[in-house]
Design brief:
This protein is mostly helical. It contains 10 helices and 2 strands; from the N terminus they run H-H-H-H-H-H-H-E-H-E-H-H. It starts with a helix and ends with a helix.
Length: about 250
Amino acid sequence: MARDTQRRLAEALDAWRQARDFRAAGRTTRAGLAYQRGINAFLLYRNVSRREEEERNVLPRTDHTPVLYALGAIGREGVPAIEAARSRRFAMAHARTALAAAHLADPGGGVPEAVGPLLSGPFPVLPRLDPADEEPVPADERIAGAASSRLLMARLMVTYPRVLTHERDRWPVAPDEPMPFIRERRRFRSAVLPGCQGLDRHAEIRRLAADGVRLYTKLARAIPRYQVALDRATDEQRAIRRGLEQG
């Protein structure tokens, strides 16, 4: 069983590698499909691993935060390719998956005021699951991933409002118990952040974009090299606001 579980991880990393190769070759549709395979494989790997440990009553449980960070990272990288392949519904679904995963992997839980204290001292790094990079993942990169995922989700919601009409049964993101894969995938694809629960479409978009910028603002204050990312995020927020006004 353990060997089969590790095979799922290998499949995820291999699909990510293939997606990058297709993207570099300009094969947009193939890249989008490969990114979707990778996203699903990471989610399946986490699901199978957690359920196996639960069935065998393994203690202590494995920390799957590295998988969640990887799931958010491949989602942020892959969604634009999926979108470019004109798979708008899947782009939205995978963006929500990345949003949930990045939030769960964020050591500050999406709270901007937690960023400074977290980065003021040593904080454990995560193993990186990436086919081309083995450098550990520091806390600031996890926070940046959560910020970027919020802005990506907000942009898609502004750009494709009709896709949102098909969304049902929203899942407030929180640590969850293992469940059958189909149900877990459905949850991630319908994720809503706790601070956005109950908001209408425009309010959720504004909240996601504003929180993304606030997280980058705190990162830039603690680590000046994030100023470039903050400037970009601020521009994205302005574009999102214009989109709402025009919509």
